[in-house]
Amino acid sequence: MVNPILLIAVPLAFAFSIPLFGLISKRAGRFIPPVAMLFNLVLSIILIPDVLESPVSVFLSGFPPPFGINLYVGPLGILFSAVIALVGFLVSIYALDYIKEGAEEKYHMLYLALLTGATGVVLTGDIFNLFVFFEILCISSYGLVGYLGNKAGVESAVKYLIQGSVGSAFNLIGIALIYGQFGTLNMADIAANINSVSPNQLFIPLVLFIVGFGIEGAIFPLNAWLPDAHSSAPSTISAVLSGIAIETGVYAIARVTFTIFGASDILLFLVLLGLLTLLAGELSAFSQNNIKRMLAYSSIGQMGLILFALGIGTDYGIAGGLFQFINHALSKALIFLATGYMIYRMGSMEISSLEGIGKKMPVSSLCFTVGAFSLIGLPPFAGFPSKFMIVLSALEKHSNLFIVFIGIVFLGTVIEATYFFKVIQVLYFKGAPAGVPAEKKTEISPAQETIKDRGVITGAPIAALIPMIILALLIILIGVYPKAVDEILNASSIELLDRVKYIQGVLR
Amino acid sequence: MNLAQLILISLCGAFLTYLLGKASSRIRDTFAVFISLLLIIPLFCLYGKNEEITYYSFLGLPLILKITPLSWLFAIAVQTITSLSVIFSLSYMKGKERLDFYYLMLLLVNTGMLGIVLSADLISFYIFWEIMSWSTFLLISYNRGPALHAGMKYIVMSIIGSASMIIGILSLYVNCGSLDFVQIASFIPRTSSGYTLFILILFCITFGIKNAIAPFHTWLPDAHSEAPSPFSAVLSGVLIKMGTYGFILFMYTIAGLNIIINIGGGSFHYLISILAAITIIFPTFIAVLQDDAKRLLAWSSIAQVGYIILGIAIGTGLGFVGGVFHFFNHAAFKALLFLSVGAVEYRTGTRDLNSLGGLIKKMPITFFCALIGVFGLIGMPLTNGFVSKWLIYKALILGEHPFLAFIALFGTWGTIIYSYKLIHNIFLGQLPEKFSNVRKAPVTMRIPVIFLSLVVVVFGILPGIPLKIIDTISASFGFQPQDIQIWGIASETGVLNMVNIFAAIFAALIFVWLLFLMGRKKINIAQDDSYAAGAYVPKDKYNYTVDFYKPLSGMIKPYLRDFVDDFYLWLADVIRTFSDKTRKIYCGDLGYYISYIVLFLAVLIVLKMGLKIW
Fold first, then answer.
1. Which pLDDT does position A449 carry in this prediction?
2. What is the pLDDT of residue A103?
3. Do B360 and B474 fall into the same domain?
4. pLDDT at res. A454
5. Structurally, how many domains does chain B consist of?
6. B138 near A CB under 8 A
7. What is the mean pLDDT of each run of 10 residues along chain A (508 residues)?
8. Which of A54, B143, B393, B477 is surrounded by the fewest CB atoms within 10 Å?
9. Who among A170, A406, A418 is closest to B156 (CB)?
């Protein structure tokens, strides 16, 4: 069997070797991330059958856990790492053509570091290690948000940095408290001894973790950095931030609450928090004119939905939440990629400036539509089975409270559907019919992307189209054949719920 | 061919049409007509069969297709109307943009509808329902301009309906453990009536929205008038009837006759009937006020759907037969009228009732067919509309609902008023100068219209053919079977013999004709003579069709404000304002952001330590 450490080691090594490749050829750097991510993707897929059979726990430096740092590759970890690798791979192909100017090498390096960090977070079995990987993820994303170097980018990167640092500080305090109480940093070891400490003493670190990871996980009201950061980053970065980074934050919350603390009394609170996040995100997106901000707010809403599903706390509900995670990673990445070239070609992020682009960029528009339909949860796209599972598990609670909650979730869905359908109308049906030249937009939003040539509007280049088409096909495939991910989802949700098995898996 | 293959062919046909369109528009058009007509044949052969097939398993749930007499009837109506609409589109849509997309969506809607009526479990029902919903949205938006607004209105209401439906479906699944219609039907009697009512209300919201029952009707006038005319015919003819199908399915297949009649002390089905009556009365008179031909027809559709639901919800065999037959008839004559108006619009470029007029000489066939459609709409004898309305009246009277019967009758008077406005303002009266070069409709437009007129007349004279089928459906739901003959109904409640009526009218016509023949004295009177009582009327400036029914409109208008629509728009506005306020949370000031984080942490700790919430 292959060693899962390679999932972290190889991309990390590649990341820091990019400047070396840069010595050979200036253009070589851009080909490194696809290679590294393809490696991760293949490795993750190879590992899936083994992991489903029995989770793999590997430890470093010869000390078995709880003394050494270990990686715990369970179904949940491998699911996340596979999705991260998949999205990372496709986005990096897109970036081959998209990222052309500026500090290209640094972009690719940070990009790989971000993905490495995310992979590390989901695979590690050590809480401090998780913190470290989380920092790798966060710091590289601060850098990437400001990549364009324009005013908006730098400003939001700094805002993001400050809020992220506050979160990190909380996390660190939480870890310190945990270490003080248990004398160990191994998650399984803490989990095994969690009942030896009074609940009140546990509460403070738990809350610190929820707040700390919640900032990255875009939980309301900790997500104020997100709309700025997502909208001023280049679209490729928005895609990974939205599709991977914030979901890693939610993963960390789930891991902490379910595995470490086994906190079942906080679940209802998570549900409420999820609903609040959902409503705040969808409402904010509703009347937004800037397409990337709209998508960013929509991501907040989606995170709320995932949190809601996790808070339901049944194995089916968690599986639904994880399904929604897959769906969101694919769909939101797809949508951001699709809008990337639209914005680039039109030179503006205003939704109204995208009028009639469906004719000029048919594939991008179609991909946007597929992603949007999937996020709304329409069949036959991937969002349908995930929403189906979430709602079903909420109803299985047999409580009137949850029927009300479901009503709120659907209120969010209706709002989400409204703004997505509005954009789809703009893409395809707004503006003058073909043949009549549309008025030229002269206004350019200050948060524009790099504009080179707005004379002729053509479709996106082939390197951008391929990843988009693959993502769209995957969304439809999963939507039509949800069985493809069924097994791993169930195993993952059991991993989250079955703490004993997790503890035994690590501390054999 | 089994049912799954049927749906698959329909689906693949839609996408193939799209791909063929990339090669050549001619091949695409031919293929679209071919595939839509082709599907009628196997559907027709399925009559009386009882086929069931489990074609897929979704999240561990079996997806089942099944043909029942009810779904057969609906499937045939769906496929026929779609085929005619495709044929009509050939010339109507010629030269418009994005035709591949148009045909793809039209055929996709068709697939969705076929899937809905053939589904035998709720999850496939829902999937097809949604596919139909979003493809309809894309088609409604197709015309740009005001159509965008109409599309949004439609899809928002549709999504609300879907949300309501999926909650109902999943709640049933949680409680019953299966989504198979048969299993649910056997589960419903065992559960409490409160729960049954809850489920029924959830589904009634969904079907009420699609069926445009008041107070969920507001999307329809916009959507029907802004959609491309061939698609308006599909929308009005069959698509909104998917709601009707849903009503029948839930009230009679799933809940069953006994439960429907007795639930809530009999108030449930009565309440639906009252809603249906409201749906008849207001939209009918709102239709009178309309100056846009398609908008008039759209409001008329709402009102006619009221008749259908009234017949179905009243809970007697006669009413059910009448309601289902009226569905079938309405599909025929409303599609006919939308297509006729579409043909007029195609030739004249307008559907404004104030500026049209006098087209009878220019488009005689279209006029004649539209006249038949209007007769059917009013319910004149010798059209199928007469038979179904007669059945509904009869059911209401026998069921001792004098109030509802009166409303149904009153609605018909309103129908006569607006139908006359429609036919007069387009075809009668004075021909405006600018339309003097109008030619008759192209042949691909005439074929569907003529076919539908034949349906209206033939089933008006020989109503027994469809009634027989409908009666078997109604008998299978536990209603008393009616004594159906080919010429009508022979039962103790009163005989309806259309052939006799036909013979009588025919004889009377011959007699009158002979009378005229013998009189043989013909005087030509100028049109304005009788209208202006001999006073001089400047010919070129006077148009009889402007401000038709002005006094009547002035009289009824104050009572007919669509305040439901105003309410929804107000609600949307409130949400928009609220969302703007919500967005202010993200004000851009870092100080606030940090304080959110710290405050959130503080609140959590206070909640735990101080209040001991959990």
1. 44
2. 73
3. yes
4. 46
5. 2
6. yes
7. 83 86 79 88 89 83 77 89 92 85 80 91 89 92 86 88 91 92 87 83 86 88 86 88 90 89 82 92 89 91 92 89 93 92 83 82 90 91 91 88 91 92 88 48 40 56 87 92 88 87 82
8. A54
9. A418
Task: Say which residue, A168 or B559, is predicted with more confidence.
Answer: A168
Q: What is the mean pLDDT of residues B520-544?
A: 66
| SS3 assignment, position B266 | helix
Whether A204 sits inside 8 A of B605 (CB atoms) is yes
Cβ contacts of A483 on chain B, cutoff 8 Å? 57, 59
Return the closest-CA partner of residue A323 out of A392, A240, A236, A385. Answer: A385
Please list every residue in chain A whose beta carbon sits closer than 8 Å to the beta carbon of residue B585: 221, 224, 280, 284
Whether residue B314 is found in the same domain as residue B441: yes
CB contacts of A385 in chain B (<8 Å) are 58-59
CA distances from B372 to A491, B375, B379, B386, B455 (A): 64, 5, 10, 12, 10
Determine whether A299 is exposed, middle or buried from the number of CB atoms within 10 Å of its CB (0-12, 13-18, 19+): buried
Closest CA of chain A from B594, distance in Å: 6
- B195 interfacial to chain A (CB closer than 8 Å): no
| pLDDT band at residue B544 under the 50/70/90 scheme | low
B227 found inside a domain: no
Please, which residues bridge with residue B63 across strands?
B56
Give the dihedral of Cα atoms B476, B477, B483, B487; nearest 10 deg. -90
Same domain, B605 and B485: no
The answer to whether position B188 is within a domain reads no
- Inside any domain, residue B118: no
Over residues B576-605, the mean pLDDT reads 85
For residue range B42-75, list pLDDT tens digits in order.
888 888 888 888 888 888 888 899 998 899 999 9
Considering only CB atoms, which chain A residues are within 8 Å of B131?
379-380
Same domain, B503 and B584: no
Mean pLDDT score of chain B, rounded to an integer?
A: 87
> What is d(CA A413, CA A377) in angstroms, rounded to the nearest whole number?
8
B97 touches chain A (CB under 8 A): yes
- A72 forms bridges with which residues in the sheet? A57
- Report, in angstroms and rounded to the nearest whole number, the Rg of chain A calculated over CA atoms: 22
Query: Residue A175: helix, strand or coil by DSSP?
Result: helix
* Residue B211: other Cβ atoms inside 10 A: 28
Phi/psi zone of residue A62: left (φ > 0), alpha (ψ -120 to 50 degrees), beta? left
What ipTM was reported for this prediction? Answer: 0.90
Whether B21 shows a pLDDT value over 70: the answer reads yes
DSSP run (H or E) holding B339: helix B317-348
Give the residue numbers spanning the domain of B367.
271-548
pTM of the complete model: 0.91
Q: Dihedral of the CA atoms B120, B122, B123, B125 (nearest 10)?
A: 70
- Position B243 scores a pLDDT of 92
Distance from C-alpha of A316 to C-alpha of A393, rounded to nearest angstrom:
6
pLDDT of residue B549: 82
**Phi and psi, residue B233, nearest 5°:** -60, -45
Q: Do B401 and B289 fall within a single domain?
A: yes
pLDDT computed for residue B370 by the predictor: 93
Q: Are residues B299 and B443 in the same domain?
A: yes
pLDDT for res A441: 41
Specify the pLDDT at position B516.
Answer: 84
Q: What is the pLDDT of residue B130?
A: 92
Identify whether residues B414 and B443 lie together within a single domain: yes
Residue B357 lies in a domain: yes
Contacts of A208 in chain B (CB under 8 A): 601
Q: Which among B97, B174, B582 has the least Cβ separation from residue A280?
A: B582
For residue B599, the chain A residues in CB contact (below 8 A) are: 221
In this structure, the answer to whether residues B364 and B335 fall within a common structural domain is: yes
Q: Does B600 touch chain A (CB under 8 A)?
A: yes
Q: Would you call B130 and A378 a contact, using CB atoms and an 8 Å cutoff?
A: yes
Query: Among candidates A151, A30, A100, which has minimal Cα distance to A453?
Result: A100
